[in-house]
Design a protein that fits this description.
The protein is α/β, with parallel strands linked by helices and about 325 residues long. It folds into 2 domains: about 5-110 and about 295-315, ornithine cyclodeaminase, domain 1, CATH 3.30.1780; about 130-290, Rossmann fold. Helix content is about 30%, strand content about 25%. The protein is built from 9 helices and 16 strands. It has helices spanning about 10-15, 20-35, 110-125, 145-155, 170-180, 190-195, 250-255, 270-275, 295-310; strands at about 5-10, 40, 45-50, 55-65, 70-75, 90-95, 100-105, 135-140, 160-165, 185-190, 200-205, 225-230, 245-250, 265-270, 285-290, 315. Helix 2 (about 20-35) packs across helix 3 (about 110-125), helix 2 (about 20-35) packs across helix 9 (about 295-310) and helix 3 crosses helix 4 (about 145-155). It is globular, with a radius of gyration of 19 Å. The two termini are about 15 Å apart. The relative contact order is 0.19. The mean pLDDT is about 95. This is Putative ornithine cyclodeaminase. It holds the Pfam family OCD_Mu_crystall. InterPro entries: NAD(P)-bd_dom_sf (IPR036291), ODC_Mu_crystall (IPR003462), ODC_N (IPR023401).
Length: about 325
């Protein structure tokens, strides 16, 4: 590694690498095992909200293998749709842990989308009921819904999608995307129909003024898995006791800034990966999460390995 150079990977560069959700999920599991052995570390996210509807978020993680630290800075604005901009933007800075010197910079929208859906996919390997899910439900139809559609299609034999919303806008675009991938797609304004019909439910509802949770987990089908990308803000605390298993991404970080209220989480992703497997029968399970930097680190390692082999990206002199 030439520490006098930086490799820059743009969004299109990352897309050209052909990273798969399954390999990212495998890499996350691998680094979580290293974290369990005190060879990888993950700090709490730090958030500042300069204006209403905006957030500036910082993520930080490091490991001995891969010998990298990553620092991701991410900005979000709910008004970006009217500006014809993605709702988030940011960069990932990568440093060599031995020297402290920077080695790479990555545009983070694609990496963030891939790693977030891969986190859900990894959790689903442990939490989905034995009966394979064939229907996926979406509450929220933005980019994360698209990433999750691709991720779950990579390991599940999905036949149908049911989307909460009304025809038009992002909901219709997601429905068309589902149909283009061979699924039948139904758009409904009835959230109860989504919960009762789907074996996998993905919620990715953005926060906003006056937002109140409205989804009741007691109405989920008896054999179902929820990936709450929105940290569970869509779900009423009073209904969370209906989950047989409710897991967060990182218990120590969750305990610093709890986002699951009403019940105590049963564990976290590290426990799933490193703990004793349990029987999966007909059960309701949930993975509520905010995203962890150690997952970014796992995805970044894969991206940089492939970029070097494929000679993708722009090499900058320091």
């Amino acid at each position: 590694m030439n520490l006098r150079e930086l490799r820059y990977l743009s969004k299109s560069d990352v897309q050209s690498l052909g990273l798969s959700y399954s390999e990212i999920a495998d890499a996350i599991a691998k680094i979580l095992r290293r974290k369990q052995n005190n060879a990888a570390w993950n700090n709490p996210n730090s958030t500042i909200s300069p204006y209403e509807g905006t957030r500036s978020i910082s993520f930080h993680a490091a490991a001995l293998d891969p010998a990298f630290s990553v620092h991701k800075t991410l900005g979000l604005s709910r008004d970006n749709s009217v500006r014809n901009l993605p709702h988030l933007g940011g960069l990932i800075n990568v440093h060599d842990v031995h020297t402290g010197h920077p080695v790479a910079i990555l545009e983070c929208e694609e990496i963030t989308g891939l790693r977030t859906a891969s986190l859900s996919l990894l959790a689903s390997r442990y939490l989905t009921p034995r009966r394979p899910a064939q229907t996926i439900g979406f509450v929220g139809a933005g980019r994360q819904a698209s990433f999750h559609l691709e991720a779950f299609l990579s390991e599940f034999d999905l036949r149908k999608a049911i989307l909460l919303g009304r025809e038009g806008g992002s909901c219709s675009r997601l429905a068309d995307e589902c149909r283009s991938k061979g699924l039948t797609a139904l758009v409904t304004p009835d959230w109860q129909e989504v919960l009762r019909s789907a074996g996998i439910v993905v919620t990715s509802v953005p926060d906003g003024p006056g937002f109140k949770p409205f989804l009741d987990a007691s109405l989920l089908s008896e054999a179902s898995f929820v990936a709450a990308v929105d940290a569970g803000r869509s779900w009423t605390p009073s209904g969370l006791g209906s989950f047989d298993e409710l897991v967060v991404d990182d218990i120590p970080l969750h305990n610093m800034k709890p986002y699951v209220t009403g019940v105590k989480p049963d564990g976290d992703l590290t426990r799933l990966v490193c703990g004793t497997p349990w029987s999966r029968g007909s059960q309701r399970s949930g993975f509520f999460f905010t995203g962890i930097a150690i997952a970014d680190l796992a995805a970044v390692e894969l991206a940089l390995q492939k970029a070097e082999v494929m000679k993708v990206g722009t090499v900058l002199q320091r």
